[in-house]
Amino acid sequence: xxxxxFEVSKCIPERKQHAVVKxxxxxxxxxxxxxxxxxxxxxxxxxxxxxxGAKHVIGTPMKDVIHLSHGPVGCTYDxxxxxxxxxxxxxxxxxxxxxxxxxxxxxxxxxxxxxKQNILEAFKAFPExxxxxxxxxxxxxxxxxxxxxxxxxxxxxxxxxxxxxxxxPGFAGPSQSGGHHKINIAWINQxxxxxxxxxxxxxxINYVGEYNIQGDQEIMVDFxxxxxxxxxxxxxxxxxxxxxxxxxxxxxxxxECARSAEYICDELRVRYGIPxxxxxxxxxxxxxxxxxxxxxxxxxxxxxxxIIAEETAKWGPELAWYKERLQxxxxxxxxxxxxxxxxxxxxxxxxxxxxxxxxxxFGHQGDMEKGVSRCGEGALAIDDPNELENQEALRNLKPDVxxxxxxxxxxxxxxxxxxxxxxxxxxxxxxxxxxxxxxxRDIYNAVYSxxxxxxxxxxxxxxxxxxxxxxxxxxxxDANLSDxxxxxxxxxxxxxxxxxxxxxxxxxxxxxxYPRRSAAEAAE
Amino acid sequence: MNCQVKVKDRVGTIxxxxxxxxxxxxFASIGVKxxxxxxxxxxxxxxxxxxxxxxxxxxSFEIASSSVHEDGAVFGALxxxxxxxxxxxxxxxxxxVVPIITxxxxxxxxxxxxxxxxxxEExxxxxxxxxxxxxxxxxxxxxxxxxxxxxxxxxxxxxxxKFAKKGEPSEKINLLTGWVxxxxxxxxxxLVSELGVEANVLFEIExxxxxxxxxxxxxxxxxxxxxxxxxxxxxxHTFALNRYEGGKxxxxxxxxxxxxxxxxxxxxxxxxTDALVKKLSQVTGKPIPASLVKERGIALDAISDVxxxxxxxxxxxxxxxxxxxxxxxxxxxxxxxxxxxxxLGDDNAGYVNDPRIKALQDNVDYPMEIIxxxxxxxxENRIKNEGLELDLILGHSKGRFISIDYNIPMVRVGFxxxxxxxxYRNPVVGYGGAxxxxxxxxxxLFTDMEHKKNKEWLLNVW
Lengths: 524, 462
Known about the structure:
heterodimer, A: alpha/beta, Rossmann fold, 3 domains, six-stranded mixed sheet, four-stranded parallel sheet, 23 helices, 43% helix, B: alpha/beta, six-stranded parallel sheet, 45% helix, 14% strand
């Protein structure tokens, strides 16, 4: 019986099929939890809503846009400044958010006029911004406002602006995942193909399902540019609205988060014949393989190999240093959706930790398939986790560190489990060869925190040492290592606090110039 | 009149100062012991509010959702609440109080939560949970009315209404703190205890500054019990420190149980704290002790070090909850500063009649603007496009980019203050709060002088 029944959930039997333990020799046919089903009310699930899935996860990372939510202020306020999707235009989309501020009289008499006035006010306040996304919310969906009609009206009056409408109220689906789907489809239906791309290179991609958390996108685009690849658009982190209207012009869709953005890739394949290539920017091996695959697709593997060789030579030794010190440390990998499979295998292989549990808040069975297959024996996999189950799991598994969200991180802290922010990262970016070392560094810092060690001591009962004025992380992590390892000249991660500034400072002259292919070559 | 009160003239909101009513109701609910609220609406209405509050307090706590999905929005979602109550009670055996907090979606579809509560009381509670103490109450907090501030006010009244009982007249006072921090609660408890006044501190969140314990079992929870709530009906007097965050409950107790009440002034600054101390003393007959005279003296000694030398004439903008903003503005005036712009983030029609605002209008001798229904653009636009010059901003973390982008120092105060460590631990009320605020403001200005090399050498001698 692979299903895992939590003591705290015995009274809600439908939960029984939402958690499994991967037993000896078991594969997915015997241990896959149910996924993406309706939430059990009152279970204190960690799920969000379809509005936030559309607006907060996918819409707002788009950088040169007024993001307006049509509803009461709460939806807007709550999804503002709670993520770390930066951008190279001074973080406009992080700093500014717009709510139509629906009040009681609008609920009674309709809020379409209010919306129109809002749109005009917002463009007036920021005359340099000519693009807008509008998100429906529960309240305005229920009163039946025709947001599309208002947007069309404004576009007629203001010919230089463009507006995208996403109808994804909070209740549209069991979790934020419903909103991911809705905005993917809305974007390709409304916007893709409305501008023709400017093709400047031989190898043209859309980078999809990448949200530039702490600069991930900028790290990855740097690799693509070093390979001589033109990145037409990024869906959506640090992405530009008009670039995303030209997605139909790419040769390849390079897909990162297949949970939130596979829909648009699949539609681009059906409608425009653009193939989809799933990649993974996390982990030296996975990232190397990803660059290789892209290189292979375009016949430029040598360019990928050169980058992989250079980067792994630079960052490999530091990663190995951490791996030696993180051997066997138990990890609960409890993210939102795709990271359970992006990370499970990579952190075990490359950092030496052991994933004892994975969970997903809004993932589907497909995510669990990938996640469970990448976990080792004995790993506990939980779908749509809730507060009591998490606590029971933490008590039983006693992990050394947990990767999860901010608030569940506070629960873990109280239970004396150090936490890393899996959504926004502690000190990212985590993508890229250097980024992966930053992740290892953050894990190491959490596990070997001297403060964490002190928090275990009960000064009223325990016999504790008083002979030291301090303890360093190294004193803790190296205690049982070989003399050779102890003597390592490496002292951990050697990079800067902010690795993105250097990338932003680069100009075209800093990238290699490859000769364009002739027409005959391209035809091959 | 130099001081103008205006309503924001745009209809939309660019960077909101407040979130909506259910957030306030949820904050009130975590102040009650053995209570887990169920927010009836989409899951985001809970998930994000829990995140917000946990960002501020750096703690976790429980609030449930009825998880309304599409079918519920179409056909009604009361069955979701029924399940939620049952699931919650089964799995949290300590829970005694379950407020059902409505949102915009469930108010629009018209779910009859009050009717459902009667049904559950007669059915589920009487049958499955017979013998267990469980109280359900409806808190109507549609998001399209008021703001998180009124949501708190409404919820506090509804909790009190549900539980208050007429008992033996007591010597205790009701102390409704308003939406404050653990540090404020500590300071207020200290103040009443110095006076020897017995206070029933309500929606008491002091323990949200909770420890990390060796056995890993510490949890954060509110400390107001059912007995505390019941006792509100037999108190000798109600002190609602904040007019807009507890005032409704004080009025209810006055009307229903004839308990006299003092609503405000928010005890921010020496003068307002003096007023509270005097009123407490008058009501209870307890003399003001020498210890408070000394404490007040320590505060004044510290404040004198910074007031007229550094703080005088500094131009300041203040935003956030009305009671906090008004209290801070009053204190800033006492500190010889010049509040320029006060932003009140909702459309409460009562603000214009607030006697404290009227007093500002009568007495301020330089141009000051008070904007209601305000958003952050009211501040940023004035700085960016209309030449407003400021030395300091007082407000919560959501306004941080105005401070950062326009190089204006800012002291974090109010809710939420997630971008500075430990703000929740410190009081802004009482004599301790007055000292903390004055010193925070002075230190922010000092850091700014050094950062900008603007007479930074002043501090060589001080």
